[in-house]
Predict the structure.
Amino acid sequence: MASRGLELVTYEAGQHMVQASETPYLSDAVRDKLHMVHDDTRMFGIYQEYLASWHEFSSLMNLYNDSLTLGKFGLISRWDQSQPYPKTLAVQEFLQTLPFTFAGDGDGDRDVDYDDFFLFSEAFGGDDPRFDFNGDGRVDFTDFFGFVDVFGTQPAP
């Protein structure tokens, strides 16, 4: 892929656990096992290894949340859960270890907002390093997705 200038991207990345059947409803026993694995503290270490390995191959990733009845897919099970699951904690810790550059803050006000969106649109097609998220020397659609990811954020103090 690198020889063609392509990056590795995933859709719905991460661990997936489902019932091995065509039946869309889980039995209580299967549901309990899926919850047990999803909540297991060992998932923290597994996800640490997974994220470190993924980072070696690509800087792009898609993780997601779900509350489907068919299995366990996401980092969390419900939006209203009271404490983070081990996978969520591993992702949060991983993100804190990455070198921090506040790309996307085009106007330097330490907030990626609508002003930066207009600056991004002016930079599109050029080589403005403030918006070159993938470091390829040009601001293009790949960088737009990076900008969308940071839009509405502020750097850590």
